[in-house]
Write a sequence for this structure.
């Protein structure tokens, strides 16, 4: 283990190398140039390469080719780039090819801006590509987690033969923190892929294709994917709680917004408000069951998002009406301060009469 | 009694699903022959097209990876970068090539070690036969103009002489890739009788006469000096 002071984007790049990734494709936007430059400099000495592409669509297609060849491959971009990659993500999922794609999302829709947002939540968790498919989505909230989740993303992609998205934003790309880097894996120690193309002369041919199968055959293929997605949902959900013990109000936030929300929770705790933070780390599969279980004791949820309200829909689906769910959403690249978030939390807390409830309960218990 | 000639080992003995007079069947034959001659079948990867000829998935006994429409040369780039020792070949129709022309042009410009087998039958057949305004675009010459393209030739299928030359061109293009020289391409002017609403013989004649008037046959680029090789 080695500890380094690096940016989120660099943590992604270094962790990808350590996860045995030797192929990176893409022409990333400005905020990610340092990571691309880093990889372009490091990869050739490691027997790999960064191929700059003229478009995000080309990048995801190149990733698809490298994945077919059995390699761990990476591309990263920002929101608009991800829009162009959606067809490729659908193909990766359909042909069951592993890949890791990082989205440092920025303001949208349309031309948008270059500021950090979380408004690609729908795009990431629902997918903009065609067909019945799912993409795993991991949401880091620190540079350390960026490194850890990048390693995990490659492992999950290979294990499930499915694309894995890392959903971050421009804030996390440029944030600089100390990171304990994971141990390096040589590509030679990675599990063999007995489906990859071009790796043996004396064996039956391998064909990674879906050639217009009849509806029944495609239905079987899609059900096979569904069983895989069910297994992922059962085995891979991840989340983290903060100050949950006596909480009467739960703030739900992911990624950058969770960092801000944590600061806000600390502020309101100092004023005696019993507020906790719940942060999903996997956005798909969304950790619905653990959140629903929390609503047995907490009946008020406040979702803090840097969007007009997207994850809030998954929160409402998860709690199934067992709790009231309010939203504090800031779209367009506005990053709320912990004080602003604390104000919203405090407002909701008092509006729901949780202070009074607390006194009454406190007196009884 | 004479035995029928044995099938090259990499061609499956299943009936091809093409219309009578379709150029694809002939091109498949040429491809199998070239791969067999160069002993490449076991160390080559084919990207089938997205049009009618994607049926080749079931007929050629070799590794294949299907790419989204227009994306074959980008997918091929990823494959080749990981497996530089493999021969990577993209079989593309003119319609899908135009759909992802940026991918093809830039793969050629970068000089990726790929071979493009472009089967030009003047428009996308699976879409019922619209003849797009870009049907007369000289794709072969356009790609040959890219810096990293080392061998490009346009061939036809009208007559035994043209077919024989087509096979030679394909072998030259594949050899250029095996030698690590860069991007190579063979454009085949192929008949599509159904969409052209012609009888098979008429379509073949049209491809040999009218089509090759607009798109003349011949070597478009030979920076590999492939012709000079013994």
């Amino acid at each position: 283990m080695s500890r380094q002071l690096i940016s989120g984007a660099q943590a992604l790049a270094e962790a990808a190398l350590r996860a045995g990734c030797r192929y990176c494709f893409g022409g990333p936007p400005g905020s990610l140039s340092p990571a691309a430059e880093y990889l372009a400099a490091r990869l050739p000495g490691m027997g790999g390469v960064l191929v700059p592409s003229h478009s995000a669509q080309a990048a995801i297609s190149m990733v698809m080719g490298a994945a077919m060849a059995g390699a761990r491959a990476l591309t990263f971009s920002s929101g608009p780039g991800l829009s162009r990659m959606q067809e490729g993500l659908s193909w990766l999922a359909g042909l069951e090819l592993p890949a890791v794609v990082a989205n440092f999302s920025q303001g949208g829709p349309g031309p948008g801006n270059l500021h950090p947002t979380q408004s690609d939540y729908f795009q990431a968790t629902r997918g903009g590509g065609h067909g019945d498919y799912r993409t795993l989505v991991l949401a880091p909230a620190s540079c350390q987690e960026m490194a850890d989740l990048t390693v995990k993303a490659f492992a999950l992609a290979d294990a499930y033969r499915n694309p894995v998205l890392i959903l971050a934003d421009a804030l996390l790309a440029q944030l600089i923190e100390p990171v304990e880097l994971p141990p390096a894996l040589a590509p030679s120690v990675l599990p063999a892929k007995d489906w990859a193309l071009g790796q043996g002369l004396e064996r039956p041919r391998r064909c990674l294709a879906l050639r217009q199968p009849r509806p029944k055959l495609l239905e079987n293929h899609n059900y096979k994917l569904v069983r895989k997605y069910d297994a992922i949902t059962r085995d891979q959900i991840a989340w983290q709680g903060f100050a949950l013990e006596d909480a009467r109000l739960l703030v739900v936030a992911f990624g950058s917004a969770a960092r801000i929300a944590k600061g806000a929770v600390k502020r309101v705790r100092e004023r005696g408000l019993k507020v906790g933070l719940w942060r999903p780390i996997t956005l798909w599969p969304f950790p619905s069951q653990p959140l629903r279980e929390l609503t047995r004791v907490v009946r008020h949820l406040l979702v803090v998002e840097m969007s007009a309200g997207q994850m809030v829909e998954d929160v409402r689906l998860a709690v199934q009406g067992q709790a009231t769910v309010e939203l504090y959403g800031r779209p367009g690249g506005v990053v709320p301060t912990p004080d602003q978030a604390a104000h919203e939390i405090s407002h909701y807390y008092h509006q729901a009469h949780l202070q009074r409830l607390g006194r009454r309960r406190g007196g009884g218990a | 009694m004479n035995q029928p000639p044995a099938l090259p080992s990499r061609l499956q003995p299943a009936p091809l699903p093409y219309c009578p007079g379709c150029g694809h069947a002939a091109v498949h034959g040429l491809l199998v022959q070239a791969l067999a001659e160069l002993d490449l079948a076991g160390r080559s990867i084919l990207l089938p097209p997205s049009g009618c000829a994607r049926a080749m998935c079931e007929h050629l006994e070799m590794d294949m990876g299907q790419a989204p429409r227009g994306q074959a040369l980008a997918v091929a780039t990823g494959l080749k970068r990981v497996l530089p020792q493999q021969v990577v070949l993209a079989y593309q129709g003119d319609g899908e090539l135009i759909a992802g022309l940026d991918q093809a042009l830039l793969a050629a410009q970068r000089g990726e070690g790929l071979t493009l087998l472009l089967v030009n039958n003047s428009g996308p057949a699976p879409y019922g036969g619209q003849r797009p305004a870009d049907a007369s675009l000289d794709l072969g010459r356009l790609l040959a103009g890219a810096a990293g393209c080392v061998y490009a030739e346009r061939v036809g299928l009208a007559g035994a002489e043209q077919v024989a030359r087509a096979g030679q061109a394909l072998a030259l293009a594949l050899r250029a890739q095996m030698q690590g020289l860069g991007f190579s391409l063979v454009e085949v002017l192929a008949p599509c009788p159904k969409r052209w609403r012609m009888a098979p013989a008429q379509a073949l004649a049209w491809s040999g006469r009218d089509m090759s008037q607009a798109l003349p046959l011949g070597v478009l680029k030979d920076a590999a000096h492939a012709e000079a090789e013994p």
Summary: The interface with chain A takes residues 42-45, 48, 54-55, 57-58, 60-68, 71, 74-83, 86, 102-103, 106 of chain B (CB under 8 Å). The longest helix of chain B spans residues 160-178.
